[in-house]
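In response to the reviewer comment on reproducibility (Comment 2.3), we provide here a single inverse folding case reported in full, input and output, so that an independent group could reproduce the run without further information from us. The structure tokens appear first.
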């Protein structure tokens, strides 16, 4: 079992370090201190020495007067003798006057001496290094005056309220506030209690009541009464009923107005329907006229395109003709030259068989030479492009191959490098394009709102609002409600860093938290969301700091926000930073920040200079985003410029890559020639030269006259044919030139204005309706399309005009009937004419009639129905359903409290051999009145499907009657109402004992009547301890480090045997509580193993009390002396 004295215990929660009193009871004219030093200690002394006086002083400091019981260790009569005034004046006895034959109260302090009294307690939290001093000052100035002090500083009576420090005028308060900032002084105990309760992390006022009860409670009695009265908060049943009653009071006020609204809607609906048709026809007519204007332009554009295509074909024919003519002229020139040569050579006549053989050989060799020379030419072109030797011999040919292979390897590496660089550039471009799209979405988002919260969080908030069917304004982000003041803009960057994460937290009113928890749990948000439940309670007990260097003084909270108090509370608790650039001040402050963003939190220091934390476009505070929108647009421009630069770079790299690939191709082609014989044409030239010499020798003796004559005849005939063909081509060229000139002239005459995209789309839609979906290929086909479109357009325009005229006449008749209704309608609704005074029965007033229709349907009728049938629709669902949900929710809350109370009980050994533990249980009561109330409440809650989907009017009337009967009874029978609406009365409470070994229950407790004295006390302290753990927040993760860990137990062992006494001490140790145990000297042996100090109280002459502080070692040394002293003074 854990003990009270482990090291972890010393680090948790607020513990009493010392307690001081001055002029309180019989502690007179001196300052007395009880030094507990955060440890469990013992307060002892003889009866009447002043122990209870000290305990009552602690109660006075911690418990409101209405819940405080003085002198709890004494009987009822003696309790009445004690009070604040008796302690203040120092009453210590009574004497009987023989003269007056009356008794007189003896007192230590008198009005003429202007006495004052001070109570002070100093608490320290070692885990969080927080400290708090509670003090109360009392003095008499015609009446008793009181001041209550809560200070985050370590104070004591001598230095801060002692001789010379206190004055009746109150200057001491000004000095104390000035010397010790954030010290709160008030004359209201309620405000004072709220201040220290918040700091101590107390759950509710029940905690103070429990603190009072731990002092003197010995036996619990009825468990039901204790749990209902001391462990459970009283529900706000009356206020919830009043909310219900307020809605009910406005039920029957607008029935006639609803009937009038419905009659007017019935008459206006056909007007609205006809107006829609009339306006649609009018719109159609305007569209047809607009189409009439643009249709010729569209057809002209199509005709121009067809003519330009025909012209292009003509121009192609012209080019072919010109090419043919050039070819004919070249051929004629060549033939003429040949003819002239043949005439000149007509005389030669010597050709024989040998000459023909030589010619054949020369022809063969010449063909091979030309093939290899062609390959040599290709080779030389590639060699020159690649900077290699052209026309090489065989040695240089192979040298070129070696060099080309090296170049090819180098190009392969360059291509791989460029491809990798292009890939990285394209990846960066894709990322930049993604960022550009994000910025565009962000900018679009900011254009539709005013805050600076990132888009992904706004998206989630919108989903939640849609799910709850509420406005997004009901779920603000903290950053939307705060901004840096204009005069503090120098600190904007630093404050944004400090508050950035907090600013992105969503604030959720308590009423929506369950639905939001469910939605968040069931859906993937695709981002991180932190949200706070904001409870409806007062936060006015804390005041914002006034120092000009405080970060909180540089922040402005959005006016009129319902979250103002909560925000101030959070800012004060978490972000009370000093803004300073003085490093001495920075180093001495617990929380500080510099303008450059260096942040200090006690021993933790941080500076975040990442771009995402320093750029203004990432700021999130404020409810106006104009500046952020400007910065985002600048960022978008930079992003677009970066994209353009990257695209240009990629284009350049692609160009370079294409150039290298070209060289790569040339090298590959160059290396395809690896045999020198394929380009060695010189060998063939030498052979041809030999044959040529032989041929020349033979030609000198041959006769070729006859051959030349034949060739001359053929050439002449060819010239005649070519001249005829030339004449034909010239005629065709003339025809084509004339036709092209005609088309150019017609194209230039066509008027083709530019059409916008919308007009062009309208034309295409119109033609599609006419089944003209194929593009005309010829002018004749286009002319047919134009004729069909013109005829259809004219027909549509005439039809639209006819319908518009008929509808206008019909609407005018309906308007007249509405403005001047029949007598029956006028008699039924005398105020009808008041609604139509400004209306005229003419179509130009249709907007006013439509506005009246929409106002009746969407505003006035709804308002009247809400007044008449509040519980039958909106009010019913919102009021009675919410009331039922609230009242059943109270039962859920009670069960949650019981579960919280059971958590510490599960870990406490209640009985040993066998070991057991206690668990609280609750069961529904068997009470007829409560059962009847539940049945009536269920009957008043609507079946949403039956009422809204089936529109069952009879069911609606029945439902209304059920609601009326329930509320009338609740209103008329107050006693019944208070009983049945206090959900604590719905449950009976008890405790069940379980075996630790197998968690098997075996014994149930409804009260302590059947237990022995020691068992009653053990049971009492067990249940009371669980209540303390719950109300003090000891077992809650978010409260335990700042929870109060101190209680006082008076006469702790008076009715306990040693075993039960040890149980009490060990139980409190398991709860990690610091005890001030008050017990007589004869019970000290029980407490000694658990305490660290002893405070011995003595009383001299039955009027002057003193207290001595001893360590346990000192106490043991002087134990007999104290016992003797106590015996002497008793």
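Designed residues, in position order:
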């Amino acid at each position: 079992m854990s003990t009270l004295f482990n090291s972890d215990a010393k680090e948790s929660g607020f513990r009493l370090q010392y307690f001081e009193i001055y002029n309180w009871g019989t502690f007179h004219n001196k300052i007395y201190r009880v030094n507990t030093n955060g440890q469990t200690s013992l307060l002892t002394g003889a009866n009447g020495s002043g122990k209870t006086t000290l305990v009552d002083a602690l109660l006075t400091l911690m418990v409101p007067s209405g819940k405080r019981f003085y002198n709890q260790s004494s009987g009822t009569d003696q309790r009445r003798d004690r009070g604040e005034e008796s302690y203040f004046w120092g009453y210590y006895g009574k004497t009987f006057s023989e003269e007056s034959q009356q008794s007189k109260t003896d007192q230590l302090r008198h009005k003429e001496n202007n006495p004052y009294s001070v109570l002070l307690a100093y608490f320290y939290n070692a885990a969080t290094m927080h400290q708090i001093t509670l003090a109360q000052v009392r003095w008499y100035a015609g009446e008793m005056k009181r001041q209550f002090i809560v200070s985050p500083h370590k104070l004591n009576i001598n230095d801060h309220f002692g001789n010379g420090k206190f004055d009746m005028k109150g200057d001491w308060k000004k000095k104390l506030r000035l010397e010790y900032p954030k010290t709160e002084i008030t004359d209201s105990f309620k405000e004072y209690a709220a201040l220290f309760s918040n700091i101590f992390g107390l759950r509710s006022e029940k905690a103070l009541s429990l603190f009072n009860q731990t002092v003197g409670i010995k036996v619990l009695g009825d468990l039901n009464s204790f749990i209902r009265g001391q462990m459970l908060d009283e529900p706000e049943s009356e206020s919830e009923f009043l909310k219900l009653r307020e809605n009910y009071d406005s039920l029957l006020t607008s029935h006639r107005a609803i009937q009038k609204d419905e009659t007017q809607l019935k008459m206006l609906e056909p007007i609205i329907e006809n107006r829609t048709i009339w306006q649609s026809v009018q719109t159609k007519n305007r569209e047809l006229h607009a189409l009439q204007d643009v249709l010729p332009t569209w057809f002209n554009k199509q005709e121009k395109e067809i003519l330009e295509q025909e012209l292009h074909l003509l121009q192609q024919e012209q080019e072919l003709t010109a090419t043919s003519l050039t070819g004919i002229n070249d051929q004629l020139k060549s033939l003429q030259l040949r003819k002239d040569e043949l005439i000149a050579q007509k005389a030669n006549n010597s050709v024989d068989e040998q000459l023909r053989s030589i010619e054949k050989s020369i022809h063969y060799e010449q063909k091979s030479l030309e093939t290899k020379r062609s390959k040599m030419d290709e080779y030389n072109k590639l060699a020159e492009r690649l900077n290699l030797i052209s026309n090489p011999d065989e040695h240089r040919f192979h040298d070129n191959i070696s060099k080309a292979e090296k170049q090819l390897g180098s190009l392969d590496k360059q291509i791989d490098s460029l491809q990798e660089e292009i890939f990285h550039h394209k990846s960066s471009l894709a990322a930049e394009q993604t960022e550009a799209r994000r910025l565009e979405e962000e900018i679009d988002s900011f254009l539709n709102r005013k805050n600076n919260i990132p888009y992904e969080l706004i998206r989630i908030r919108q989903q939640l609002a849609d799910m709850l069917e509420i406005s997004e304004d009901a779920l603000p982000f903290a950053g939307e409600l705060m901004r840096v003041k204009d005069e503090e803009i120098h600190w904007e960057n630093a404050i944004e860093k400090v508050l950035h994460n907090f600013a992105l937290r969503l604030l959720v009113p308590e009423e929506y938290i369950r639905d939001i928890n469910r939605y968040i749990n069931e859906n993937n948000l695709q981002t991180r969301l932190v949200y706070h439940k904001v409870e409806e309670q007062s936060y006015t007990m804390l005041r914002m700091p006034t120092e000009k260097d405080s970060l909180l003084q540089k922040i402005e909270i959005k006016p009129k926000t319902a979250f103002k108090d909560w925000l101030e509370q959070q800012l004060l608790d978490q972000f009370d930073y000093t803004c300073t650039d003085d490093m001495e001040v920075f180093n001495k402050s617990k929380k500080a920040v510099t303008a450059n963003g260096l942040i200090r939190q006690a021993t933790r220091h941080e500076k975040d200079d990442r771009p995402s934390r320093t750029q203004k476009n990432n700021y999130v505070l404020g409810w106006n985003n104009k500046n952020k929108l400007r910065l985002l647009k600048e960022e978008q421009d930079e992003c677009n410029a970066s994209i353009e630069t990257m695209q240009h770079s990629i284009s350049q790299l692609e160009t370079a890559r294409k150039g290298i690939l070209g060289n790569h191709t040339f090298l590959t082609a160059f290396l395809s020639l690896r045999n020198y014989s394929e380009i060695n044409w010189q060998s063939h030239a030498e052979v041809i030269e030999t044959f040529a010499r032989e041929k020349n020798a033979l030609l000198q003796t041959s006769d070729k006259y006859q051959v030349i004559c034949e060739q001359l005849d053929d050439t002449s005939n060819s010239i005649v044919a070519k001249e005829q063909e030339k004449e034909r081509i010239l005629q065709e060229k003339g025809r084509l030139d004339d036709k092209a000139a005609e088309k150019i002239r017609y194209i230039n005459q066509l008027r083709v204005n530019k059409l916008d995209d919308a007009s062009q789309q309208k034309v295409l839609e119109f033609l599609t309706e006419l089944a003209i979906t194929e593009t005309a290929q010829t002018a004749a086909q286009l002319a047919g399309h134009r004729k069909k479109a013109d005829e259809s357009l004219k027909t549509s325009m005439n039809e639209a005009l006819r319908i518009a005229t008929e509808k206008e006449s019909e609407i005018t008749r309906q308007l007249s009937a509405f403005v001047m209704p029949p007598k029956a309608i006028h008699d039924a609704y005398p105020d009808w004419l008041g609604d139509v005074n400004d209306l005229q029965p003419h179509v130009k007033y249709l907007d006013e009639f439509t506005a009246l229709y929409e106002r009746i349907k969407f505003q006035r009728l709804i308002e009247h129905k809400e007044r008449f049938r509040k519980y039958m629709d909106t009010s019913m669902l919102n009021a009675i359903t919410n009331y039922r949900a609230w009242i059943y929710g109270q039962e859920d809350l009670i069960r949650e409290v019981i579960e919280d109370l059971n958590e510490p009980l599960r870990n406490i050994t209640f009985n040993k051999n066998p070991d057991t533990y206690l668990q609280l249980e609750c069961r529904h009561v068997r009470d007829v009145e409560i059962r009847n109330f539940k049945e009536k409440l269920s009957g008043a809650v609507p079946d949403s499907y039956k009422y809204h989907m089936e529109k069952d009017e009879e069911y609606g009337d029945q439902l209304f009657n059920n609601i009326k009967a329930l509320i009338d009874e609740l209103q008329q029978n107050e006693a019944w109402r208070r009983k049945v609406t206090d959900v604590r009365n719905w449950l009976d409470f008890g405790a069940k004992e379980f075996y630790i070994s197998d968690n098997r229950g075996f014994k149930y407790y409804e009260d302590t009547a059947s237990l022995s004295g020691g068992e009653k006390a053990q049971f009492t302290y067990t249940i009371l301890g669980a209540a303390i753990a719950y109300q003090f927040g000891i077992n809650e993760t978010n409260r335990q480090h700042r929870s109060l860990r101190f209680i006082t137990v008076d006469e702790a062992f008076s009715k306990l045997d040693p075993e039960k006494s040890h149980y009490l001490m060990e139980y409190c140790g398991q709860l990690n509580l610091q005890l001030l145990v008050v017990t007589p000297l004869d019970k000290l042996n029980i407490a000694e193993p658990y305490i660290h100090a002893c405070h011995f109280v003595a009383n001299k002459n039955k009027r002057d009390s003193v207290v001595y502080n001893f360590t346990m070692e000192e106490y043991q040394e002087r134990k007999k002396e104290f016992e003797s002293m106590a015996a002497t003074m008793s």
